[in-house]
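Support reply, case 0932

Customer input (verbatim):
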Amino acid sequence: MHLPGGVPSAHVDPFIGSQLPPRDLWPRFDYSAAHLSHYPDRLNASVALLDAAVEGGAGDRPALHYEATTWTYRHLLDRVQRIARVLVEDFGLVPGERVLLRSANTPMVAACWLAVLRAGGVVVNTMAMLRARELAYILDKAQARIALCEVSLAEELGLAAARASLPERIACFTPCCDASHPDADLDRRVAAKPAGGSAVATAADDVALVSFTSGTTGNPKGAAVFHRDLVAVTDCWPQVYTVEPDEVVVGSSTLAFTYGLSTSLLFPLRHRATTVLIPRPTPEALLEAIQRYRATSLYSVPTLYQNMLPLAGAYDLSSLRKCASAGENLRTDLWEQWRAATGTRAVNGLGTTEMLSHFVSESMQVACVGSMGRPVPGYTVEILDDEGRPLPPGERGRLAVIGPTGCRYIGDPARQAIAVQHGWNLTGDICERDTEGCFWYVDRADDMIVSAGYNISPQEVERAVLEHPKVYSCAVIGVPSETRGNIVRACVVLHDPRDAGEAMAAEIQNHVKSLLAPYKYPREVKFVDELPRTATGKVQRYRLREL
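Our regenerated output:
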């Protein structure tokens, strides 16, 4: 298979390439910036990030802290090489095959992620919170024959495998590779393998990652990411939000999110920094990690900044130099409260799963508090009208971006055509730009609910609620929340209105939690006699927000 640039693909399994959208539906890509013009046609991101760090003298530096364990760059490379050998020699992985990963943030999942790329495979990221039905959809969509799973999360994946008839092989691991654990098949195989071995010489434009993100129609969208993309983002936003070799970074987002992947793995490896991995990022766990490891940089979301505020005074945060916020808009009052409590300026910005990382960001000085900042070097950002024409400052419109990364949904040309128009990546956000060139967030352009940094499809939650036998009809909306930005509200019509009450609301909430990742459940359940509709039968969601 030859890629658009004429370079032969290293992929033997052609499935993922066949699922990319038609070329005329791709966005424009721009590698004209000086810091983006030097990538070779053959590029394996695992080698460019990790092998290069060890060869550059960082081998004995700490790469990952996890609880009482520290892995150096050299030890991480050793694990990556061994896992890659297991994938190829024991599991028969061929370049281009998909490997699903399921784990909280641990050293082993970081090693597995890099090992799949090293072996020429395609990582399929999944969050630890996903339930069997969600995992089954992803397995089927990506056709993942192999899955690597943290031991404590295997049960739900097993249920998903029964529904999807995939993966054919599930290998379990412990957080730090404990070969003595009775259920850790992968760890034992890793211990038996020698290190070393060459990496697959993937093309820079071979798919390396499929990251699934919620869509307003319910089913997740699989965004394809190339090896070149993974390296490019490490050379873009860090020009604004710098990453230095002496830094210790802490993040709240899972590596299964591209925000967490970029800030806790890609950026630190590329710039030889150290990452603290936290499996359950509660406010207390984040603050404890800053204090314990003398962390210099914190990546999080507004909800967690809000929840850390009342606790911050009980911890020594004097090592903290800087903070970044993403996932949802950072309120000015929260920014001011955080600065007063910690002395650090939270750098606000915006990225998307499809773009992989930030494409607009405030500067380190945060000269325009409350804005999203200016375009990250390498990206062009515009406000467009409905016909795709740029709007002048002060006009509200659709946020659009072109750069070294872009949207490519696998097996979904209809949604690709919505997300990419006139060559621009449309983010689904309504924004405006001021006369100084700063971008300001206004609202979502679609029905997507952004809660505590998570994108939640209202239709997906509606379908889950409707599976409850006592529910007749349902509409799901997002409503403002001081602590989470927005929360999910389910407006429910019951078969028998006499069943309405707190007990039924809790029953519906628990029902949704049993089917979907817990962050998606409706934190409010409102019982109504009927759903308000237009003359054509469309639900009037604005009236449900007024309840």
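We compared this against your earlier run and they match. Two observations from our side: The chain has a mean pLDDT of 94. The CA atoms of residues 491 and 526 lie 5 Å apart. Please reopen the case if you see a mismatch on your end.
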